[in-house]
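Render this sequence as a predicted structure.
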Amino acid sequence: MAADDVAVPRTADAKPFTKPLWYWVLLIVLVAVIALTAVPAFTQHPHSPSVEDFFPEALFGEGTFMEFNRLTFVRLVMGGLLCLTLGLAAARRFRLVPGRGQALLEIIADFVRSNVAFMLLGNKNGRRFAPLLGTLFLGVLAMNLSGVIPGLNIAASSVVAVPMVFAALTTSPSSAPASRSRGPGTSSPPSSSLPGCPRRCTCSSPPLSSSRTSSCGR
């Protein structure tokens, strides 16, 4: 066979590589943040972080239950971004061979399920509480990532409100397995304080002990 008769792979039908939509959206947002913060960064005096950053001025509703400040805005932004990201991921069709975004979600889900839920709660309770642990993991991650995002520059969990919400979400699920294992009405451990715990910390000892009991009931 002559050299000219050798079959050459067809490349005309091959689609050129194009960057996904989320890449351009993030690029536009990043450029917009840099453009908005460039002038103040070069014209104003450098800002040193202080305790006052944890008590920002109210944007509206000052002195009321509906007070809205910078920290509340950061929480709404990060919560919205987290819900939007997970919603878009759930709306897309999962593939047998995952792409980059699906692979990242699978790595996070497998880490929470295998290295957190199963290792701490066992097989039975791990499968039951894996969705809750995954929600808490992604929530804490999102609230802390806001501290390194230009334009936000503060963690949404930097004050006690967000940790209290996460603590409230874990109190009831953690006490339920202990209640079933010890009997109805006995969700609290026999001792109201942990060994070596100061008397002033006894108010937080029952939730901690209940969590420890539930994690041991494999």
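Summary. The helical segments are 21-43, 70-91, 100-145, 161-182, 205-216. The longest strand covers residues 58-60.
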